[in-house]
Amino acid sequence: MRSFYQIIALLIKDFTAELRTKELFTSMIVFVLLTLVTFNFAFSGSRLSLEVTVGAIWVAFLFAANLGLSRSFVREVDKNCLEGLLLCPAERYVIYFGKAAGNLIFILTVELLTLPILPLFFSNNSLLKDPIKLFGVFILGSAGISFIGTLFSAMTANLKARELLLPLLAFPVLTPVLIASVKLTLYLANPSPIYEPGRWLQLLIVYDIIFSVLAYITFEFVVEE
Amino acid sequence: MEKELTTALTYVAVAYGITWAIIFIYLVFIGRKARKVEKEVKSLKEILENKS
Amino acid sequence: MSKRDEVISWITLGLALLAVYLSLIYTPFINEPKLIPRVAQKIFYFHVPGAWVGFLAFFVVFVCSIAFLKTSDRRYDSIAQVSAEIGIIFSTITLVTGPIWGKAAWGAWWDWGEPRLVTFLVLWLLYIGYLILNRSVAEDFRRARYAAVFGIVAFVDVPIVFLSVRWYRTVHPSQPILERGGLSPEMKLAFFLSLFVFTVLFYLILKTRLSLFNMEDEVKEIKEKMEE
Predict the structure, then answer these.
(1) Are B39 and C66 in contact (CB under 8 A)?
(2) Which residues in chain C touch residue A148, judged by CB atoms under 8 angstroms apart?
(3) How far apart are CA B39 and CA C215, in angstroms?
(4) What is the ipTM of this complex?
(5) What distance in Å separates the CA atoms of residue A176 and residue A174, rounded to the nearest whole number?
(6) Binning pLDDT at 50, 70 and 90, where does residue C108 land?
(7) What's the Cα-to-Cα distance from A201 to each of A180, A183, A188, C44, C66, rounded to whole Å?
(8) List of chain A residues whose C-beta atoms are within 8 Å of the C-beta of residue C142
(9) pLDDT tens for residues A200-224?
(10) pTM over 0.80
(11) Does A31 touch chain C (CB under 8 A)?
């Protein structure tokens, strides 16, 4: 229970810091929009199939998430706050889960804020057919991204090539998350059994569990001095 | 028939060639590294001998 | 290299030549009506052993990563690094010969619906990332810890990647020609000889590279001490 309050405290700290500048939220949202606009031009403005639309949306989310994740620990390192954080009388995993939850909420907020605009962009109303379930898919997919991303972000924050290295390490590991999230989003827009939602849902949940446990075990080795 | 056989054999030859070329190049790479280290060890030894 | 390893090396060289010979001459053509796939099947004798050694090497990385985090013993870190490098070499063989075989057997260089192919590409990218991570951390102890964490995460990820790329095409791809009818005794001999040669090769290269790696490390340490 103590750890739980500590995680909440860490969350509040991150949000207060973010709300003061709002630099991350703004740039992530603008980035998603920019990616979608770029996709639209790249596809020569042709009417896109549902598959391409959903794929483009998730790629935009993944890139935006990468942007936020790469800042997550860099902010601490640059202002020499990481030492302070590590000196807190809290377990290492508390720091990890606090950061991961913060990243998850950042990513989800960006996704939710851009969601109403998506049907306008792609003139495809079926995307929002089942917004509550879609939100569930967003949670599961973004959780996978932030569990892996937070672990790797802590690793790369100290390095010179940090912005470069994070996607290089994270994207291959995240392949299953991307595939499963796209499939589930497709299913919600066009409920047909060919998308096999059951197995993808299982895969996504199993992925989230495995990597949160793995990160829980290994995080202390990443921040250890 | 003959043309097909040539095509097929080309595929096989290219695949075999690439396989062993990759291993060979890697071994050469290790060999060069080994020589470099040996040289360094030699020069270090000389320096140490001169000091003592 | 010890006397024993030298003897093993020469025997391996002989066996490797024998494996090439057997796979080219000795094995009969499989039961396949079209000529090109029938001949190109011979790529299999190096393609699959390459994949096997790749997996073996990455498994060694995984085990050594866990051992390193448990014990902080530098030796495990060295083995993991060297093994990842050799794994990349052998999986590159598989990754390059795969499309050649695919072109001969299915008429296309690449098939995103073939799970083994795509999984291998992701696997390859994962361990390229591992090597880049290893080279971009200056501080030695920290680098070893990061690499170990990534080595564990990457290996755990592989089966999940395999499942997901296997499911992501709803139409299942045609099975490779080999599974149509299985291997004849001659083919089995050539295949297992080749597998054996590759495995021994992995062991020899690992040992040689490891001793070189440790030597480089020592030279670096001595140099640092001299500068002080």
Answers:
(1) no
(2) 153
(3) 12
(4) 0.88
(5) 6
(6) confident
(7) 7, 9, 12, 36, 30
(8) 158
(9) 999 999 999 999 999 999 998 988 7
(10) yes
(11) no
Longest dimension (CA), chain A: 56
The residue assigned the tokens 């040689």 is C208
Question: Which of B22, B40, B41 lies at the smallest CB-CB distance from C89?
Answer: B22
Q: Which residues of C touch B (CB under 8 A)?
A: 20, 24, 35-36, 38-40, 42-43, 46-47, 50, 86, 89, 92-93, 96-97, 100-101, 103-104, 201, 205, 208-209, 212, 215-216, 219, 222-223, 226
Contact residues, chain A, for C163 at CB < 8 Å: 176, 203
Question: Cβ distance A56 to A39 under 8 Å?
Answer: yes
Other beta carbons within 10 Å of A188 = 21
Residues of B in contact with C20 (CB under 8 A): 16, 20
Query: Does A193 contact chain C (CB < 8 Å)?
Result: no
As given in the structure block, the two tokens for residue A17 are 């810091």
Walk along chain B (52 residues) in steps of 10 and give the mean pLDDT of each run.
80 88 91 89 84 70
